[in-house]
Amino acid sequence: MAQALLPLSRIETKVLSNGIHALVAGGASTSSAADSPGAPIVCMAGWPQTKEAYAEMVPLLARRHRVLVLDLPGLGASAAPGDQQQQQQQQGGGYSTGAISSILRSAVGAELGGGCAYHLVGHDVGAWVAAAWLRRFPSSLLSVTLMDSIVPGTFPALAFPPPDDVNRRLFQFSFNRLPPPLPETLVQGKERELLDWLFDAKAAHPERITRASRDLYAAAYARPGAMANGFSYYRAFDESVRQHELASEANDGVSGGGDGSSSSSSDDGVAVSVHVPILAIGGEQATGKTMERVLALSAEKKRSKLVIIPDCGHYVMEEQPEATAAEILMFVDAIDDEKK
After folding, report:
1. For position 175, which CATH number holds?
2. What is the pLDDT of residues 122-161, one digit of tens each?
3. Whole-angstrom distance between the N-terminal and C-terminal Cα of the chain?
4. How many domains does the chain have?
5. Region (Disordered): which ranges (predicted)?
6. Is residue 1 part of a domain?
7. What is the DSSP letter of 81?
8. d(CA 230, CA 75)
9. 170 inside domain
């Protein structure tokens, strides 16, 4: 018998280690073997959103799974990377996907237990971090879902100047990377206007990013330093690409582990021959089929797949939450069933 939808009242906000704020739901035991809890699902949103972008999906995902939705370091309510990294912030070094994945892996491990394997889901910048997590620390991952994102190191460099339609969708890759304080100065006091433009330009259904959600996001990014933190992820893009290339070189010619899922990784996060299944999700009217590029991040081809969400732009969690959650659950539940 299928479980009822998790009530919103069962979704809690929790502060994990490293100052990471998370929505936490699910994990209760069930009486039916068919509905027994699956492995945890850990989710990350991107810029310019917060963990609440998953609000409509959490009750769906939490029917059989414990769900953690993380605010990335420096975004939403989460603490920024540590003081020792602040000197690197102008070039974005402290916000590279390698550095951020290390912070979040530590927080999730402390919450779930170091030996607990889980499914990882990322959208937009959250997918950048998920891809680095996969390359650096695959041993705790059962699967990775990457949703509508230009993941560092997996897409070719853009021509300049880009065509108008490309510039409209991807201008942030230039603007957000400008040295401080120019972008910060231009958007100060205009955070809501910038966010409204992004949602209206990138969504097939901008009305589904509701006024309440936009108010929440605008308030989050109007906090002192919040917009600069978001820009820092883009300022670190080249460093994140470099880290991807180093990991790819380390993987070349090395055979994977014998368990068919992943190999181990070193303490500094250089992974060896990743065999974790990947679900690539693209919005039909956004990144779409080009999300297929991220499947090359894993040597596991049989269980990896590309899914296009119809009638959907970039913001898949809010534009099509039911369809997106259904695809994720079909993917992760099949993997969990293999482990029984």
Report:
1. 3.40.50.1820
2. 999 999 999 999 999 999 999 999 999 999 999 988 788 8
3. 19
4. 1
5. 245-269
6. no
7. S
8. 7
9. yes
In a domain, 3, yes or no: no
| pLDDT tier for residue 2 given thresholds of 50, 70 and 90 | very low
Beta bridge partners of 123: 147
Structural domain that includes position 237: 8-339
Tokens standing for 98?
A: 């390698």
Query: Mean pLDDT across the stretch 256-271?
Result: 44
Distance CA 206, CA 182 (A): 28
**Average pLDDT of every residue of the chain:** 89
Q: Can you tell me whether residue 191 is helix, strand or coil?
A: helix
**pTM (2 decimals)?**
0.90
Quote the pLDDT of residue 268. 46
Question: What is the edge-to-edge ordering of all strands in the sheet holding 21-25?
Answer: 12-15, 21-25, 67-70, 41-44, 118-123, 141-147, 278-283, 305-309
Q: Which residues of 238-269 are buried (b: 16+ CB within 10 A; e: fewer)?
A: ebbbebbeebeebbeeeebeeeebbbebeeeb
CA-wise closest residue to 11 among 74, 54, 48, 71: 54
At residue 82 the predicted structure's pLDDT band, cuts being 50, 70 and 90, is: confident
Q: What are the start-end ranges of the H helices in the chain?
A: 58-61, 97-112, 125-136, 164-170, 172-175, 182-187, 191-202, 211-221, 226-235, 237-251, 316-319, 321-339
